[in-house]
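Final report, closing paragraph on structural work. Over the funding period we assembled a curated collection of sequence-structure pairs, and we close with a single example.
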Amino acid sequence: MILLVGLPGSGKSTVGRQLARRLGLAFTDTDHAIEQRIGCSIREFFEREGEDAFRDIEEEVIRDLAQQGAGVLATGGGAVLRPANRERLRAGGHVIYLRSTPEEIFRRLRHDTHRPLLQVADPLARLRTLYEERDPLYRETAHFTIETGRPSVPTLVNMILMQLELAGVIPPRP
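Its predicted structure, as stored:
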């Protein structure tokens, strides 16, 4: 299994979908799986139940999905906050950290109203705080780090495929 971690807006779902397509594997987004399980949007659940209750559900979903074998799994930005998740992800396959700076993410998400952790007065400051808290956790969890910068999604997918080939995770492409 190939598992993607990174800050909200780093491209985990978008890159993961294309990566799965290129490899002929199933794609799963943990946020979508969580919404199916809870029967409402993550934002609604966050507002009604709080972050701790959300993280409990997220941990259950990651436990279930990380055991499914071949596929590409995009995790939520905070999935690495719990040690159990970091261990499960790392043991579940090959973890790729899509590393983006807070400024890059802010540029991409400045008009996004669906991410609960960014619905604050100063989203860039919030992203900087998230980065400071989570970057060490992403690095601890990941087998590979890909700097997202400004490359297109197909370029990022090719970078990931090259890393996986060099590591012997997937066979070289013709």
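DSSP finds eight helices and five strands in the chain. The beta strands are 2-5, 27-29, 72-74, 94-99, 144-147. We thank the funder for supporting this effort.
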